[in-house]
Amino acid sequence: MMTFRMLQGWDTPTSAVWLxxxxxxxxxxxxxxxxxxxQILKVLLETALIQSAESSNRIEGVTVDPERLxxxxxxxxxxxxxxxxxxxxxxxxxxxxxxxxxxxSITPTTxxxxxxxxxxxxxxxGAWKKADNEIVELRPxxxxxxxFLPVSAVxxxxxxxxxxLSYRAANEQRHLPPLLAVxxxxxxxxxxHPFRDGNGRVSRLLTLLALYQHGHDVGRxxxxxxxxxxxxxxxxxxxxxxxxxxxxxxxxxxxxLTYFLTIVRRAxxxxxxxxxxxxxxxxxxxxxxxxxxxxxxxxxxxxEIERQCPGVSRDMIRxxxxxxxxxxRLHCRGRGPGxxxxxxxxxxxxx
Length: 351
Known about the structure:
Strand content: under 5%
Structural class: mainly alpha
Strand order of the largest sheet: 1-2
CATH architecture of the largest domain: Orthogonal Bundle
Order of helices and strands: HHHHHHHEEHHHHHHHHHEE
Distance between the termini: 55 Å
Number of helices: 16
Helix content: 55-70%
Largest sheet: 2 strands, antiparallel
CATH superfamily of the largest domain: Fido-like domain
Number of domains: 2
Number of strands: 4
C-alpha cells in the first residue's frame, strides 16, 4: 500500500543490494542440503515447527508450560486453556503453508484464513477489526505512549485489497526485487494492522508464505519467528522508525528493509551451520544435540539442551549425555534434570 506507492522509482540502497546478494548465494548453497542431508533436515523441520509456534506466540505474550509445548505442537495433547489453543492454532496455520504454499495466493482472504487458524477460531478470528486500534508502548510508572495510529477500521478492507493488489503487481511486473517486495508487504500489513489481535502472528505467517513462493524455503528448517524473538528490540525499533510518516507515504523504508533482510540472511547462515557439516553414519538427532552442547560457553543443563533442540525427546538427550559421559567427553555434577554438565576439553567434534 503506502510503501508500494513510495517505491515507484525508488533506488535500492547499496547495503540492501549486498544483503540480497549474500542471501542469493546462501540460497544456492543450501539447495544441496535436501539431497545430501535428508535426515538432518527432517529433524530441523520438526524443531522449527515447535520453535515457530512458541516464539511467534510468545512475542505477543502468549506462553505455555515448556513441558506442554512439544506434545501440543505435535498434536499429542488437548489444549487446556486459551494460550494452548493458540499454540495449536499457529501450528495448523504453519501446516497449511507447508502443504499448500504453491496454491495459496497472498490475498485478503488468505490473510483472514491464516488469522482464523492462528487464533484457533476465537470470537473474532478471521474478521477485520471493527474498531480503530492503536500501537501503544506501555511504560512502567508512566502513561501509555501512542506510537502509531493504524488504518481506521472502516478503511481496512480497502487498504488490504490495495496492499495485496500492489504486491501482486510488483511480482508480475518485476519492477521490484522479490525480497524487497516481501519486506514492503509485511511492513504495510503491520501498519494497516487489520485485526483486533494477532497481527504480528499473521505477519510472520505471511512472511513465511511469501518467502516460500519466491524460492526461499529456509523458514521450513530454521524458525524465523525465533530469530525475530531473539532480535525483538531490533524488530520494534525498525518498525517504529519505518512507520513514521507512513500514512503520507513519506516514511523511511530502509530500517525495516535492512532488518528484514538481516533476519533472512541469519536464517540461511544458521541452516548452513547446522546442516553443512553432516557426516554419516551418526544420527541426525545426535548431531543436533552435540551441536547444541558445542554452542554452550559454560556449564549447561538438560533443560537448556531441550530448549535448543525442541524436536528431540528428553530420553534421546539423556541417552546422548550418558554416552558422552561414558566416553569421557562430558562431566556431570549433581543428579536429575537440574544437574550441571560441562565439556572435557574445548569441543565434542574431536570424537
